[in-house]
Amino acid sequence: MSETAQRWDPATKRIVALSLLVLLVLVLYRFRGVLPPLVLSFLLAFILDPVVDFLEVRLRMSRTNATALVFALVVLTMLTAPVVATPLLVRAGRSLDLDFTQILADVGQFVARPVTLFGLELDLRSVYLQLRQTLDSFLSGVFKGTVNVVVGFASTLFWLVFILISSFYLLRDAERIATWMDSLAPPPFHDDFVRLRQRITEVWHAFLRGQLLMAFLLAVITTTVTTAVGLPHSLELGFLAGVMEFIPNIGPIIAAIPAVAVALFEGSSWLPLSNLWFAVLVLGLYVLIQQVEGNLLLPRVLGRGLNLHPLIVLVAVIGGGNLAGILGMLLAAPTVATVRILGEYIYCRLTDQEPFPEAARPPVTRRSLSRRLWDRVRRLVLAGQWVVRPARLEDRPDVEAICAQIWEGHDYVPEAWEEWLADPYGELSVVERKGRVVGVGKLTRVADREWWLEGLRVDPAYRRLGVARLLQAHQVQLAERFGRGVLRLGTASNNRAVHRNAARDGFHRVAEFLAYSADPLPGPCPLRLLAVDDLQAVWELIEGSPILKAAGGLYEEVAWHWVTLTRERLAAHLSAGEVWGVDIGERLAAVAVVLQDRRTERLLGGYLDGEPDGLIVLVWGLRVLACQRGREVLRLRPPTCPLLQRSIEQAGGTRIWEHGLWIFERPLGSGEGSNDRSNE
Questions:
Q1: Per residue in 575-601, pLDDT tens?
Q2: Whole-prediction pTM value?
Q3: How many CA atoms lie within 13 A of 384 on its CB side?
Q4: For domain 516-656, which CATH number applies: 3.40.640.10, 3.20.20.70, 3.40.630.30, 2.60.120.1440?
Q5: Which in 12, 409, 513, 523 has the greatest CB count within 10 A?
Q6: Is pLDDT of 360 > 60?
Q7: How far is CA 268 from CA 97, 255, 289, 518, in A?
Q8: Contact by Cβ (8 Å): 74, 163
């Protein structure tokens, strides 16, 4: 911060924050008519996100093309669905031919007569009137809210187009939006904000995707069961049951009413039962279906992601229906779950408790019995097809053929082939099928008690057959046998397949790094080459900094290898003349561990840390240093820390990857007879 700029005092900050909050409330109120379609846009983007991810990862489509394809299918479905569904609904309504006015009159006449039961005379008129008033009041609130929502945006083609366009951009730029939101959080609260956002996102993902699957299952089950007992219009009633599944607790009751009515007035097509007893049978079947759903399907499909008591959900649904109609009823459960997450966080902060206790330990992956059995069968099948063995010199042509299909032929594995073969500590492994190499991977000891998985490649013709899973599991076993410590791997943030394999093998994510590039810059260098005497000052600047915390305590010691940044390693870099610093006044304001990329003519910033003003000067100086050393480019791979990212961009750095690089790690245990090669 410049000397002329003054920091705002706390009172000024509070006034500005309060003013912005009031302004935000006024804007939301003024444009409240836009909120419902925006909510639907977010929901549609959430629902379609896994489909776009699948196309992006599996079919290697760009994010934009995958999103465009999905939305083209959505529009096509929206155009054809009414054409197909309308005749069916009209035909079903005509065949039912119910006089609801007469039905209500018959019910009123029935309850008007006293009922004698075991010698006691019961007057049902008061109960009927109370129930009718309650139902009328609730339906009136739902109707009014629904009318407000529907008339507000769904009655015009403009809002429909708005929803589709908004969803398209939200889905295409989902990762950029998330990164931008994370950058808004102040550095001291950045980690908390990211974890809160991730937990809330998980809740909504679990709810929306789970509800879609539950709706499909309920529609299929209801259609099958009602068809089996001969209930007319089974297909339409099954579809209604699936749609009503989106309304928690109340939806299944609403779906059962027309089914019982159809059974009562039309009977079964083949069961020799009276209409009354057939209606009782249908009601019992619907109750049974709901019991199966609630006790068997729901816990497995939705899990315990919402973690809400059914009574809370019921109250939330009723309140949501009165406030926003059908839309409020649909979103009641995940909204309350979101409020619960925020409330728990605030409570933990107020009482000085850890709000994210699960972040302090690796997540425990519990596999179901069916999953364990399937993995065992798959291993037995693969054991007869694949052979995992150490690589040999004659395997190089097959490996080069695989790498030629990766990164447009610019893969670094062929360049490192001979070096990896000669490595005495790790192992270069291949997967062979009928004499042909179809997969390759390297286990490398990057430091004492620190191991790295790299170069895992699979022939595109043999992907999705478990080759990568088999190879990674083999190398994890090797690492367990070779030594103790920690095993790490790095992969793109959008590589879901590797993420799943890493979770299966006990890895957990510890950091995310980005990629920046900057051109060399001529001029005087503002940096100072630091010496061993500066170790204490450098360590005090780095230790406990938010940048080191965001990096998970890691730094890039050599290209594409991240290890733990310790005081001893820092001293070694100082002795080698690889640490540069920026002085502001008499204090050390920023430092960088500068390395030479061993495979290219690039200058690599292995680790950057410091104060905001010092970081900008530091990156600027590294560009000058790259020019003085004749390097073609400066490459930086910082952790996802907004403070550091802004400094790099202000100093002329440009982000060159759309996705981030996730670092996973898992501890290596020791057992009897383990051959500890980490100290050789």
A1: 999 999 999 988 999 999 998 766 667
A2: 0.52
A3: 4
A4: 3.40.630.30
A5: 513
A6: no
A7: 16, 18, 19, 76
A8: no
